[in-house]
TrEMBL record:
Keyword Nucleotidyltransferase: no
Co-factor(s): heme c
GO biological process: mitochondrial electron transport, ubiquinol to cytochrome c
Pfam families per the UniProt record, alphabetical: Cytochrom_C1 (PF02167)
Subcellular localization, as worded in the UniProt entry: Mitochondrion inner membrane
Family that this chain belongs to: Belongs to the cytochrome c family.
Cofactor stoichiometry and binding remark: Binds 1 heme c group covalently per subunit.
Protein name, entry field: Iso-1-cytochrome c
UniProt binding sites for heme c: 102, 105-106, 225
Amino acid sequence: MAASLGRICRSGFLKSNNGSLFNQSSQFSTVKDWSRSRKAMVSCLGVAVGGVGALIYSLEQSVKAFELIAHPPHYPWSWEGFVNSLDHASMRRGWEVYKNVCSACHSLKFVAFRHLINVTHTEEEVKAIAEEYQIKDGPDDKGEYFMRPGKASDYIPNPYPNEEAARAANNGAYPPDLSYIVNGRHNGENYVFSLLTGFCDPPAGISLREGQYFNPYFPGGAIGMAPPIYDEVIEFEDGTPATTSQIAKDITTFLMWTSNPEHDERKYLFIKTLAVGIVLMAGCYWMKRHKWSTVKSTKLAFIPKKKQQ
Ligand SMILES: *[C@@H]1O[C@H](CO)[C@@H](O)[C@H](O)[C@H]1NC(C)=O
């Protein structure tokens, strides 16, 4: 487009304008030399591609309208924006929520205790937390596996030995691993918060099976997880009132961190990049003005010779 525009400007407009505008434009046409059949084929191809695109779009739209599902609202999370870090006090409470509530069923298998050091807890606190857990280790010199207290380098143990055991204990539903749940669900943090706070009685006409609960934010509505949190289900060590929404917000912030452990570093890097970038941009601008000043302040004049008479 730009190239052809340039071509028109350079050759077309500077030449004397003999023919009509139509003739001129047909001179620049790239399809002028094409045969009729080739033109027809290209047209058909265009129509077909457009049609397939429209079909895919309409299917996509119809799939969206198909499920009866409540879309979570957008909540004003504290980490939103280009320069806001995660709320580490909230993450520390979120760890308490995971440990006392979620960890009964959900694993956090990609997080090690050491990851919490200097993020939510000090090194000593993390060592103490890890020692509360029993970790399966081995084999020892007799070839047997044994349990030992956890170390900071251990990964957080799974509440079930395998998926089958997890399903058997939960009416056939498999509690997903929570390490990357915020990134793994559409509308991540808003979904997690809405799901945790959104349990309600099923509307008329919907019957749930034994061990199922109704949650409008869960695809299909019937969820195998009982409402996990309610007011005062735990007590926060920092004295924050443990309301349902406070607990849901803290665990969501914590899970946001487990899904995006590089979050704070990424934003810090952005600030540094911006600072360096501004300096470099200013330098580039000055350089450009400097280098171009000769060119820009040069005046070219074309004075035709007078015709000899
Ligand atoms: C945690 O922070 C302390 C103090 O800044 C530092 O000495 C220590 O090396 C850090 N530990 C880790 C694992 O980053």
